[in-house]
Amino acid sequence: MKFNCVASATLWLAAWAVAGPAQQHDETLSRPKPLKHIPTFGLGTWLSEKSKVSDAVEYALTHGYNHIDAALIYGNEREVGKGITRSKVHRSDIWVTSKLWNADHRPDRVHEAIGKTISDLGVRYLDLYLMHWPVAFVPGGSGTELDNKTSILTTWRAMEDAVRAGLTRHIGISNFARADVEALLKEAKIKPYAHEFETHPYLQQQHFVDFHSDNGIKVIAYSPLANTNPTYDGNKPVAPIFEDPIWRDMAERKNCTVAQAVLGWGLQRGTVVIPKSVHKEYIKENLNARRVDFTEEEMQEIAAADKKVRFNDPGKGWGVRLFADLDDPTRLDGDEEVSEL
Ligand SMILES: NC(=O)c1ccc[n+]([C@@H]2O[C@H](COP(=O)([O-])OP(=O)(O)OC[C@H]3O[C@@H](n4cnc5c(N)ncnc54)[C@H](OP(=O)(O)O)[C@@H]3O)[C@@H](O)[C@H]2O)c1
C-alpha cells in the first residue's frame, strides 16, 4: 500500500471531527482529551502468552494501570486489544504504545504496519509509535537480511507522516545509541517524544538517561526488573536480581518486595517503567512500587552497584554493532574482546 499522507490525513481528520478521538470503547459524542503525558507506570507485553495477555491487560487497566506497552513483533496485539476492549476503560484514559518492526522500515510499509497495529489493538490511534530498532531488514527477505538502502531518517520521515495523519499522537525511538539520537535530533521535523531502552539497576546508564532529560525526551526503561525476564537466563553470569543481597536489604529496609524496590528506584530516577507480567498478583504488587522512596545516600549506594551488563542484545545475530557508544555494546567477531564484568 502506498502511503498517501494527505488523503489519509483528510480521511482521519474528517472521522475525528465527526466522532471525536477513539470512541471505540465509549460511544459518547463528547471529545475527551487524551492523556497529556506518558504515565510513568505501564504494563509490558513482550512474551505474554496469547492465552493470558487479554486477562492481564484487562486486570491491569481495571486495577490502576493506564499504560500498555505493545509491539507488532510480540505477535499478541489482537489479544492485547481484547483486554483493552474488555476493560471498558475509555480510550482517552489509556496510553497505548506500539512499535514498528525492522522489516517495515520502508515508507510504504510504515503506513501498513501502523494500520495493522491500530486495527489489531482495536483502537483508532496510538499515543506513541516507536521505531523498535535502528536497523532495517529487507521486507520478505530471510527475516534478518539487512536493508542498507533504507536510512533511519527515511523511516523517521514516514513516521512523522503518521503523526500528521492522526494515526499516532507521538513518535519515538527504541534501542538507539547516543550518536544515532543526536543525528536524528539534527534532522527531525517532529522530535522523538520518548526513547525506550534497556535500563535497570544492572545497566543504569545514568549519563544516557540524563542526556535525554536534557533534550526533553522521556526515557522508558525496558526490562526494568533487570535479568528477571526468563529469556535472559544464562545470557550473562549475573545472579537473579531477586537474590541480590543489596536489593534484598533495600526491600527489607523499605518493607516491600524486591520487585517493588527495583521499580521504585526506576521511578525515582525519572524513568517510565513498564514491567511485564501475566500474573494478577505481580501486576498488583508491581504498581505498589509507587509508594517506595529512597534517600540520597541509598540512591548513591545503588549507583555504586551498577554492573553495566546488557541482557537484550540481538546485534550479533544481525551482524550490527548496536549501542556503540553505550555500556556493554555489541561485539562482532573480530572485535577486540573486552571484559564487561
Ligand atoms: N523496546 C524494546 O526493544 C523492548 C525490549 C524488551 C522489553 N520491552 C518492553 O518492556 C517490557 C518489560 O521488559 P521485560 O518483559 O523484558 O522484563 P521485566 O518486565 O523486567 O521482567 C518480566 C519478568 O518478570 C516477572 N515478574 C514481573 N513482576 C514480578 C514480580 N513482582 N515478582 C516476580 N517476578 C515478576 C514476569 O513474570 P510473569 O510474566 O510470569 O508474571 C516476567 O517473567 C516488555 O514486556 C516489553 O513490553 C521492550
Low-confidence stretches: 1-28
Secondary structure: number of strands: 8
**Elements, N to C (H/E):** HEHEHEHEHEHEHEHHEHHH
**Total count of helical runs of at least 4 residues:** 12
- Measured as a percent range, the helix fraction is 25-40%
- Distinct ligands, ions and cofactors found in the model: NADP nicotinamide-adenine-dinucleotide phosphate
Strand residue percentage: 5-15%
How many domains?
1
CATH superfamily: NADP-dependent oxidoreductase domain
Sheet with most strands: strand arrangement: 1-2-3-4-5-6-7-8
CATH class designation: Alpha Beta
Q: Largest sheet at a glance? A: 8 strands, parallel
Assigned CATH architecture: Alpha-Beta Barrel
For the residues shown, what is the average pLDDT?
A: 91
Q: What do we call the CATH topology?
A: TIM Barrel
Shape: globular
Question: What gap, in angstroms, lies between the N and C termini?
Answer: 48 Å
Instruction: Determine the structural class based on helices, strands and strand pairing.
Output: alpha/beta
Overall radius of gyration = 20 Å
Active site: 74
Binding site for substrate: 132
Site (Lowers pKa of active site Tyr): 99
Organism: Microdochium trichocladiopsis
